[in-house]
């Protein structure tokens, strides 16, 4: 019963967090910019890239999703957390029979929900544009080449969006972790961006590790590789959408989801450790 | 319930300020007990540690040393807050919600059973006198209205202990009087109320007991009457007494072996005067509106 109550409270806190976020100009402007950018990729059609055009649009769209999604994930999470702390609505909330972990989980889920809507909209726009160019291309080339399948696997565009969303989840949880011990907005955002870059480039360390001799350096690199999730794992867009012969095996998708969930939960629990001691 | 509503023992709270671990003592070895169904006032100038004490009671801050219990449960336990309502100092709420939505939201957070939420929300909104404005957005509320809706959210789950941090700060005398009435009503319903204030006049007639804090230390604690009454003096208020009459009274008093210490005009407090005047005008205004309405 009390576990159910916990979920109810988390859901309620996530709800206000999400509503708060959707009302922010920042989210709306970022969404519009991203849509505009994805849309603008079609201007390149005049260069007539042929089937390469579709690849170009996809790369462009995925790039925009990654770039703006990361910005939004970090800034929105920071904003939403500090909004409650600075306006002392957190004070009212935590004076009720609400666990601090429930509060954090609610904040996280609200931000995560925000990222879900963002990712979904961008992915939808991207698919629509791809479909439009795809049909135009097929109409033009239809007689010349024999296609043994669709040019683009649309389901996989969404699968890629979903995996990116999992990654944004880790990022939001890391941001909450930073926010849990920092006193200012700006510090949180800057540190989180550093973490993002580390996670993005983490594979370099991994490569270096494989070439290293045993010793404390190797140990250090290994440790860093475990602490910071490897965000490159989630960037499998090309293989997903265009590799017609080889769809991504379900087991890989599940592994990635598991990887994301573990890191997300771990960072949330770390955030909780700090947040418990925080003076509100 | 044999446990007092609040029991604070040897409570000390240090904040570390500055980089070299400089400590600021906000609460200093405080011992207090608040009994059940009591209106207790925590008085003191700004910065004397009232809010800090309240936050520790609520488990929002951790005590440096000492203990604090609510009805026998340690403050640190989330469970201890199940039957506690809290109005923060200068409350601030989600601005895009209406007053009613806000109160309903907190009712759900506090796990008020679904079937009772509607009634619970309506009745607290009525109790705080916000029925008319309840469907407006919180963003449009005045200071006094925010305070009232804050009071409503703190009461919606029918808590046994209500803690109000500066409930009358920044509220006009009319609003303060209304809040005082609500506090008395809560006492009548058997609740315990702890409120803090630096506006002493407003608290005087309201609290059963008060504690006065200064720089985190308890200066005095006791019943208001015990603290401020001149124990060995009484005042008689008389009307229509002539000069000769007064001389005769004085003679009679001295004949009893007592002494007439001073003669002064009884004065209404400015607060009371203001309230009387405003109430009179309000009722005239209402009467005029009624007669216009019936025409
Ligand atoms: N989070 C904090 N960090 C450092 N000092 C604090 C903090 N909160 C309160 N203080 C200090 O503790 C003292 C008591 O503050 P407070 O309890 O808010 O007083 P009051 O409510 O009686 O006006 C003040 O000197 C204040 O500056
Ligand atoms: Mg205060």
List keywords for this structure.
heterodimer, A: 280 residues, mainly alpha, globular, B: 295 residues, alpha/beta, Rossmann fold, six-stranded mixed sheet, four-stranded antiparallel sheet, 10 strands, 37% helix, binds adenosine-5'-diphosphate, binds magnesium ion
Description:
The complex is a heterodimer of chains A (about 280) and B (about 300). Chain A has one domain. Helices cover about 80% and strands about 0% of the residues of chain A. Chain A has helices at about 1-20, 25-40, 50-85, 90-95, 100-140, 155-180, 185-210, 215-225, 235-240, 250-275. In chain B, helix 2 packs across helix 3 and helix 2 (about 100-110) packs parallel to helix 4 (about 145-155). Chain B has nine helices and ten strands. Chain B has helices at about 50-55, 100-110, 115-125, 145-155, 175-190, 200-205, 225-230, 245-255, 270-295; strands spanning about 5-15, 20-35, 40-45, 65-70, 75, 85, 160-165, 190-195, 210-215, 215-225. A six-stranded mixed beta sheet of chain B has the order 6-7-8-3-9-10, sandwiched between helices. In chain B, strands 2-1-4-5 form a four-stranded antiparallel beta sheet. With about 300 residues, chain B is an alpha/beta fold. Chain B has two domains: about 5-230, Rossmann fold, CATH 3.40.50.300; about 235-295, no CATH class. The chains are: A mainly alpha (about 280), B alpha/beta (about 300). Chain B: Pfam families: ABC_tran. Chain B: GO terms for molecular function: ATP binding. Chain B: Belongs to the ABC transporter superfamily. Chain B: InterPro entries: AAA+_ATPase (IPR003593), ABC_transporter-like_ATP-bd (IPR003439), ABC_transporter-like_CS (IPR017871), P-loop_NTPase (IPR027417).
């Amino acid at each position: 019963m009390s576990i159910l109550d916990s979920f109810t409270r988390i859901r309620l806190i996530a709800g206000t967090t999400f509503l708060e976020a959707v009302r922010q100009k920042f989210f709306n402007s970022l969404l519009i910019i991203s849509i505009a950018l994805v849309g603008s990729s079609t201007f390149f059609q005049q260069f007539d890239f042929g089937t390469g055009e579709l690849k170009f649009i996809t790369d462009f769209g995925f790039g925009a999703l990654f770039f703006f999604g990361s910005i939004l994930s970090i800034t929105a999470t920071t904003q939403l957390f500090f909004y409650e702390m600075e306006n002392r609505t957190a004070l009212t909330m935590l004076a009720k029979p609400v666990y601090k972990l429930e509060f954090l989980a609610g904040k996280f889920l609200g931000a995560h929900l925000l990222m879900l809507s963002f990712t979904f909209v961008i992915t939808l726009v991207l698919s629509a544009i791809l479909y439009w160019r795809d049909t135009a291309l097929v109409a033009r080339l239809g007689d010349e080449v024999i296609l043994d399948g669709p040019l683009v696997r649309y389901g996989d565009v969404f699968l890629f969006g979903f995996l990116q969303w999992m990654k944004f989840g880790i990022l939001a949880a890391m941001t909450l972790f930073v926010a849990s011990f920092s006193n200012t907005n700006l510090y949180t955002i800057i540190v989180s961006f550093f973490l993002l870059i580390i996670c993005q480039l983490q594979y370099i360390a991994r490569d270096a590790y494989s070439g290293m001799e045993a010793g404390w350096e190797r140990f250090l690199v290994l440790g860093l590789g475990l602490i910071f999730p490897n965000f490159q794992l989630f960037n499998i867009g090309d293989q997903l959408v265009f590799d017609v012969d080889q769809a991504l095996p379900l087991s890989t998708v599940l592994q990635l989801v598991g990887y994301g969930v573990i890191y997300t939960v771990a960072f949330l629990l770390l955030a909780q450790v700090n947040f418990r001691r925080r003076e509100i | 319930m044999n446990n007092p509503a609040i029991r604070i023992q040897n409570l000390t709270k240090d904040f570390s300020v500055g980089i070299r671990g400089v400590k600021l003592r906000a609460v200093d070895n405080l011992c207090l007990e608040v009994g059940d169904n009591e209106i207790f006032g925590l008085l003191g100038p700004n910065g004397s540690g009232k809010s800090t004490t309240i936050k520790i009671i609520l488990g929002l801050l951790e005590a440096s040393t000492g203990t604090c219990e609510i009805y026998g449960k340690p403050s640190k336990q989330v469970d201890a807050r199940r039957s506690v309502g809290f109005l923060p100092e200068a409350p601030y709420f989600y601005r895009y919600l209406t007053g009613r939505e806000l109160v309903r939201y907190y009712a759900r957070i506090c796990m008020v059973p679904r079937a009772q939420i509607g009634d619970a929300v309506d009745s607290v909104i009525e109790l705080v006198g916000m029925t008319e404005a309840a469907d407006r957005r919180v963003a449009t509320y005045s200071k006094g209205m925010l305070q009232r809706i804050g009071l409503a959210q703190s009461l919606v789950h029918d808590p046994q202990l209500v803690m109000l941090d500066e409930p009358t700060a920044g509220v006009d005398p009319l609003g303060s009087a209304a809040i005082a009435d609500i506090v008395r009503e809560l006492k009548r319903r058997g609740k315990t109320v702890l409120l803090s204030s630096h506006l002493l006049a407003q608290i005087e007639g309201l609290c059963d007991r008060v504690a006065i804090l200064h720089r985190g230390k308890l200066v005095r604690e006791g019943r208001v009457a015990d603290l401020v009454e001149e124990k060995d003096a009484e005042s008689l208020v008389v009307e229509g007494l002539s000069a000769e009459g007064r001389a005769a009274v004085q003679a009679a008093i001295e004949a009893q072996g007592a002494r007439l210490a001073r003669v002064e005009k009884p004065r209404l407090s400015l607060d009371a005067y203001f309230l009387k005047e405003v109430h009179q005008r309000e009722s005239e205004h209402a009467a005029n509106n009624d007669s216009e309405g019936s025409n």
